[in-house]
Amino acid sequence: MKLRNNKSGSLLEILKVSTKLGLTSFGGPTAHLGYFHEEYIRRRKWMDEKTYAELVALCQFLPGPASSQVGIGVGVMRGGILGGLISFLGFTLPSVVALIIFALLVQGFDVSDAGWIHGLKIVAVAVVAHAVLGMAKNLTPDLSRKAIAIFALSVVLLWQTAYAQVGVILVTGLIGYFAYKQDNETDKANFQFPISKKTGAFCLTLFFALLVILPIIREITTSTLIAMFDSFYRAGSLVFGGGHVVLPLLEREFVPTGMISEEAFLAGYGATQAVPGPMFTFASYIGAVMDGWLGGIVAMIAIFLPAFLLVFGTLPFWDIVRKNGKMKGAFMGMNAAVVGILFAALYDPIFTSAILEPVDFVFAVILFGMLSYWKIAPWIVVATGVIGGILLSFL
């Protein structure tokens, strides 16, 4: 992929933008996709709407932290493999550092009911609504694709299982394949991924090999770090549905075995809701409780490694598939489904957990207007949400 600027300049730009997102992206994986859309697509135009939606669909289909995988994919398309790594670090390290410090210093502190947290939840409502409405305009222009979006929304809301999103994307891809296979819509995106098919195949092979090898190594050694690495790698490899799904899995993995107490786990859960960035960084908190800074870093690497291997492994083949005339219709159907899935997440859990009183809804509309009509920078909207949440707590 040819970069518009020199490589070092582009990498610094990726670091700057991703770090800003890592410091301000509250609200969970779906809200993160909204922040990404606002920053990468609307403001900087690093890729078009359709390519972004296809990347989101791909990452929703893959196991692991979907928002982090989207961020890695954007970084790869902008600056190669190193760009993907830098994009990940900028987005992830702020919350990793915060959670490790929290684990070491203030494990018993409960922030789940703080007023400013409530304000950030309302910000997430405005951000996701702004992003989804923009995507809907471009990706569901006709009645049939609007129907696909409504179908996806209905299924995801009514059958809230870890595999519902994957099933919806598969079904709508099949519908799109037959409904739009002769569509002549032009695909203007033309990304050349700086990852070879050989490298992609190696990454996919390594992904599956580690799933088999790590449990064996764990059984023949007594290392706590290897046992931790195996548990977190498996969690990052097998979880569909984003950060909220991985939390109960981690609880089953570490609390019954006595590796972390239930009280410490719940304290970390509350802290994770308070920090920006991906919820998978909760692993760094657990690792730090178990083995200090080293444990936190090992846990972070282990739980996110599958995301890297899957993104690096699938991107080289994705561009070939998406340019195939017979597959364009499938992606049109999946793009419409992504809109429906995001609308469903806008309602539950984002809207239902944030809008508790009429005044909350009014505040969300004001924040939406700041983003959509007055074009105010997202970080100002986030700051407004924090201040407003504190003020609302006194009402």
Automatic annotation (TrEMBL):
InterPro entries per record: Chr_Tranpt_l_chain (IPR014047), Chromate_transpt (IPR003370)
- The source's domain of life comes to Bacteria
Give the Pfam families listed for this entry: Chromate_transp
Q: Which keywords fit this entry according to its UniProt record? A: Cell membrane, Membrane, Transmembrane, Transmembrane helix
Taxonomically, what lineage is the organism? Bacteria, Bacillati, Bacillota, Bacilli, Bacillales
Organism per entry: Ureibacillus yapensis
Family, similarity comment: Belongs to the chromate ion transporter (CHR) (TC 2.A.51) family.
Q: Where are the transmembrane segments?
A: 85-109, 115-136, 148-179, 199-220, 232-250, 293-318, 330-356, 376-394
Establish whether keyword Translocase is in the entry: no
Name under which the protein is recorded: Chromate transporter
